[in-house]
Every structure is written in structure tokens, then in C-alpha cells.
């Protein structure tokens, strides 16, 4: 019981900090809007009256922020005293789902502010973190295989998302093809390249600590997870890691290789809000989309791409795609929510989130096109983005690929 309470204490501390941040940010938005309106009203009220209003309201806004910080600090202080006495507990599936969604939307902010709700990347089995030492892995995995399959989840999800409607592709592939499966759990609100770099290091540690000699490492990735895997391979190859030499297969499920239209729409709304002094403060709300979501606009997997995006006034996409790993057999699955092709629908939403062409790596610009062999591409009819995780026909397709 104490452990469960301790877990709630940690959650409450995280939520209290979010509330404090939200009040402070909202106060700043209102103050900025007031200042903009007042500055544009000087031709009516006169500079003197406008200045008095700004001075008076500035004092009020500062007071609100000061009180908010004091209350937040008091909550944190009380919880710091209670937490060691109450202990901590493991995560339930329901809690994991909420925390994963929160990290997808605000994960970069949570990490930057040291919020205890921020997810730290690690590998798991059955929801339990793995200790990446030879002894730790041997204790957790009773009969390790020479073949390891790493499953990587997508945006706002956790490693538990692979358990869906009676399916778990990891469990099924272990049963049918003899893989030992491990699951990545990470903060999807961080930049894709940040997660890629951390994932590369985790795989290096996993391979070095595996209890028996490894013959194969393969990756099954859903949605954003595919971009994280591509980024990890690039970083590992550039820094001389050993695990890329053991990577045999990389299978993508609904990965937005060329981005998603919904994030691009969000960016344009943000630009429109910035066009007048009255709506500029609310553009800050749009900017609260996490770094991970912003990277999905065009499917950025490298730090240089992300930085160039930040310099682009209109969010245009002029980067060249990172090629697929040359010595790895790469496969990709797209989905369409209808059972029959419908060009306009497939172009815009595909599986409800990722367009078919983006998931297949196709692009009008040949420099951007990913070179999947046609036999390594497949489109699942009548399947949604999350339906890719629990489809019998999808499983049969990927099992055939992994079994080649």
C-alpha cells in the first residue's frame, strides 16, 4: 500500500509543477496580449494613460506569478518530505498510458524542467526495466536466444501499446520464429534525433551485455518509432558502434518517413496567429507542441534537419532524406482506412494519420524517395494507424519478412 501511495506522490508532484507552469504561462499570455493592445491604443488613450495602465497591470501579473511559484514550491517541499517515507511503486498499464500521452505532448518541457513525470529511456520486458549487464539480463531472461527483436513504439504511446486486442507481435514472433524480444520505452516529446542518439547507446549496451553470442538484432517499429530507429542507426554508424553490424532486419509499421499533414496544418495555424498583435500571444500555445511532434512535420531524423527547420519562416521542407541503412533488409507497411484505393484520401490521411506514400517512403522528388524494393512494401486495406498493431493480416505479412 505504501508503494502505491508513493507512486501517487510522485505523480502529484509532477502534476503540481505542471499546474504552476500552466498558470505562469497563461498569466504571461494575458499580460502580453494586454501590452500589445495597449501599445496599439496609444493613438486613442495617449502615451501617458497607456503607460500607467501597463505599469499597474504589470505589478498585478508579477504578483500572480510570485504567488503561483510560492504555492508550487510549498507543494514540492511537502512531497519531498513525504516521498522517502512512503516509497515508490511500479507502473500500471493505465498509468503508463496517461504518462506516455502526456510525454508525447509536453515531454520536452517535462524533461527540461526536471518534472518527475518525464519518461527516461530504457528497455523493458513485461513492463519491467532491464538492467543492461550480463548478470541482470541473465536473471531476467531465463533462456536467451541468439536472435533479439527490439520493438519501438510511436508517439504518445508506451511499450505496453504492443498488447492490443489480444495481439502482441513481440510475443507472437518469439513463439513462431525464436526471437527474444525487448521493448523500448521513451519520451516521445523529445526531438527524434535526441531519442535516436540515446537508443543507439542503449542498443550498444544491450549487445555488449547479452548473455550468449548474438547472431542477429532486428527492429520492429511503429509510427514515430521507425524514425527513431533510422536516426539511431545513423548515429551508431557515425560513432563506430558495433551493433549496426548485427542489425539484419528493420520493419516499419505506419512510419511517417516524409511527415504527417496534421502537424503541418498545426504549423500554419501557428503562423496565422502570429500575424496580428492581438493573436500573437496565443501563437505561444501552438508552439507548446513538443519537439517530437514538430519533427513529425516532415519526418526529421537528424539534428541538422531540425535546426534548419527552425530557421525556416514558412516551415518549408527542402531537406534530402536520410537513406535507408545500406546493409540492412528494410521493409515497410502502410495502411488505408478504406478497403479500396482512393487517391485523395490516401494522399491526405492514409491510415487516419499517416499518408500511404509517406509510410511507403515514396516521394515526387527522387532525392527524397526511400529505396524500398517493391516486394518490401505492403499496404494493409481497411486498417487504421493503431489497427496496424493488432491485425492478423499485418502479422502474417511481417512474420513472412522476419522469417526470410
**CATH T-level topology of the largest domain:** Rossmann fold
CATH architecture of the largest domain: 3-Layer(aba) Sandwich
Task: Extract low-pLDDT stretches.
Answer: 1-6, 29-34, 40-53, 78-89, 263-286, 310-318
What's the main sheet like? 8 strands, mixed
What string, H for helix and E for strand, traces the elements in order? HHHHEEHEHEHEHEHHHHEHHEH
Can you lay out the helices and strands and say which pair or pack?
Elements: H1 2-40, H2 42-45, H3 47-86, H4 93-112, E1 122-125, E2 128-129, H5 134-140, E3 147-152, H6 169-177, E4 180-185, H7 192-209, E5 216-222, H8 224-239, E6 247-253, H9 261-273, H10 280-286, H11 291-295, H12 303-311, E7 329-335, H13 343-348, H14 356-360, E8 377-380, H15 392-402
Parallel strand pairs: 3-4, 3-5, 5-6, 6-7, 7-8
Antiparallel strand pairs: 1-2, 1-4
Question: Top keywords for this entry?
Answer:
Rossmann fold; about 400 residues; about 10% strand; globular; single chain; alpha/beta; 8-stranded mixed sheet
Amino acid at each position: 500500500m505504501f508503494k502505491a501511495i508513493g507512486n501517487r506522490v510522485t505523480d502529484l508532484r509532477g502534476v503540481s509543477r505542471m499546474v504552476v507552469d500552466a498558470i505562469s504561462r497563461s498569466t504571461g499570455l494575458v499580460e502580453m496580449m494586454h501590452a500589445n493592445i495597449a501599445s496599439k491604443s496609444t493613438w486613442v488613450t495617449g502615451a501617458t494613460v497607456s503607460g500607467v495602465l501597463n505599469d499597474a497591470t504589470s505589478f498585478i501579473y508579477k504578483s500572480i506569478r510570485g504567488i503561483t511559484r510560492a504555492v508550487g514550491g510549498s507543494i514540492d517541499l511537502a512531497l519531498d518530505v513525504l516521498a522517502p517515507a512512503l516509497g515508490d511503486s511500479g507502473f500500471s498499464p493505465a498509468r503508463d498510458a496517461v504518462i506516455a500521452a502526456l510525454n508525447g505532448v509536453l515531454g520536452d518541457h517535462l524533461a527540461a524542467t526536471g518534472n518527475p513525470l518525464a519518461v527516461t529511456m530504457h528497455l523493458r520486458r513485461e513492463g519491467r526495466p532491464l538492467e543492461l549487464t550480463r548478470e541482470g539480463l541473465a536473471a531476467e531472461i531465463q533462456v536467451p536466444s541468439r536472435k533479439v527483436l527490439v520493438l519501438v513504439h510511436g508517439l504518445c504511446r508506451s511499450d505496453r501499446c504492443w498488447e492490443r486486442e489480444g495481439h502482441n507481435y513481440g510475443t507472437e514472433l518469439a513463439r513462431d520464429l525464436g526471437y527474444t524480444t525487448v521493448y523500448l520505452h521513451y519520451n516521445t516529446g523529445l526531438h527524434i534525433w535526441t531519442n535516436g542518439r540515446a537508443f543507439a547507446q542503449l542498443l550498444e549496451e544491450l549487445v555488449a551485455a547479452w548473455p550468449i553470442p548474438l547472431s542477429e538484432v532486428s527492429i520492429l517499429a511503429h509510427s514515430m518509432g521507425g524514425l527513431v530507429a533510422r536516426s539511431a542507426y545513423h548515429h551508431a554508424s557515425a560513432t563506430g558502434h558495433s551493433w549496426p553490424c548485427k542489425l539484419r532486419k528493420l520493419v516499419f509499421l505506419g512510419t511517417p518517413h516524409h511527415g504527417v499533414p496534421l502537424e503541418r496544418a498545426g504549423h500554419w495555424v501557428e503562423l496565422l496567429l502570429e500575424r496580428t498583435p492581438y493573436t500573437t500571444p496565443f501563437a505561444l500555445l501552438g508552439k507548446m507542441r513538443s519537439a517530437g511532434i514538430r519533427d513529425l512535420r516532415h519526418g526529421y531524423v537528424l539534428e541538422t534537419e531540425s535546426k534548419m527547420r527552425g530557421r525556416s519562416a514558412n516551415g518549408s521542407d527542402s531537406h534530402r532524406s536520410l537513406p535507408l541503412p545500406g546493409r540492412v533488409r528494410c521493409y515497410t507497411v502502410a495502411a488505408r482506412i478504406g478497403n479500396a484505393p482512393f487517391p485523395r484520401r490516401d494522399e491526405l490521411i492514409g491510415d487516419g494519420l499517416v499518408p500511404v506514400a509517406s509510410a511507403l517512403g515514396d516521394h515526387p522528388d527522387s532525392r527524397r524517395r526511400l529505396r524500398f524494393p517493391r516486394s518490401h512494401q505492403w499496404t494493409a486495406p481497411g486498417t487504421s494507424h493503431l489497427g496496424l498493431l493488432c491485425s492478423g493480416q499485418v502479422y502474417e505479412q511481417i512474420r513472412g519478412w522476419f522469417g526470410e
